[in-house]
Amino acid sequence: MIRVFITVVICSLSFVMQSQMDSIPQIMERGIALHEEGKYELSLIEYRKALDLEPKNAFVNYEMALSYYFMSKMDKAEEHAKIASQEESETGVQGVILLGTLYDEQGKSKKSIKTYEDALKRFGDYYLIWFNLGVTYNGMNELEKAAHAFEMGANNRLDHSSSHYALGTVKQLQGNRAEALVAMYFFLLLEPNSDRSAQAVTNINDMWTQGVSEKSATEISINLAPSKGNNPMDASELFISMLEASRSLEENEGKSSFDLHQEKTTKLFRFLAELDLGKRDDFYTQYYIPFFLKIAESDHMEALMHYVLQSSSPESLQWVKTHTDELDSFFTWLDERK
Fold first, then answer.
1. Which of 134, 138, 139, 196 gives a 20 to 30 Å CA spacing to 104?
2. Residue 228 has pLDDT above 90, yes or no
3. SS (H, E, C) the chain
């Protein structure tokens, strides 16, 4: 009996010693693996072991907050996200974003906005903070503020495709077709073949055909929304509709849908560069418009258009697969202009 008791004690001590020997990274690796399997309760068991070792560890608290969030235990998620958000690090930024998301999803939009604005003062123009601020403003139907936030997100992380997609979507909702189109084309340059890509192409086609209807073989009707004020960009609205209406002109008979799309897009890029936008100084005037003008004036428009349309056009998808040299040349050319 005594021997059995001693064996049990030794085994128990061995288990405790092994737990103490595990480092926080080892414990967190097990917890994250469980979280990714959807076993949130089990992941929290592991995280609590790490929390016992370092109660204020930002990474541990962030992962705990995330598990609680997926379990819809918002109070606990907020508690741990607050601790994580206090650290001046990448994990601290993630904690802030999760905290802002929690507030937003609970209808506390103003608290969410303040969380993000305070974070921008602490961490600077971090693209994900701007992006999530835009998401909150968009949910409040504050479209102008949402557009600014998404624009700042794109400006601070050019390859963040979601910022460009969100910016294009908001600009489309605002009725600013030219601004929405260039944002969507840039999104497709970053993310050409996904479910969102197909939706982006649908949005682009909708914007091109908006207000343009064919009454007969010789009569095209163009209906424009009222001007939103003394905005030089408003001139692009009529130009876009006229480009779309010109598809029915005799000179365009026999041209493929792709050729017509490429021609009107090239003309739009050039038109935007020629507009006198006064003292406007933003991502459009500093990046989008000059960027697409360079492509419009190059020999790479065909490559651009096939590449961005591949999610919805079998013809373009096939072109992309069979014209790898042209695409390599295009992207090398782009890299040389950064």
1. 196
2. no
3. CHHHHHHHHHHHHHHHHHHHHCCHHHHHHHHHHHHHCCCHHHHHHHHHHHHHHCCCCHHHHHHHHHHHHHCCCHHHHHHHHHHHHCCCCHHHHHHHHHHHHHHHHCCCHHHHHHHHHHHHHHHCCCHHHHHHHHHHHHHCCCHHHHHHHHHHHHHHCCCCHHHHHHHHHHHHHCCCHHHHHHHHHHHHHHCCCCHHHHHHHHHHHHHHHCCEEEEECCEEEECCCCCCCCCHHHHHHHHHHHHHHHHHCHHHCCCCHHHHHHHHHHHHHHHHHHCCCCCCCCHHHHHHHHHHHHHHCCCCHHHHHHHHHCCCCHHHHHHHHHCHHHHHHHHHHHHHCC
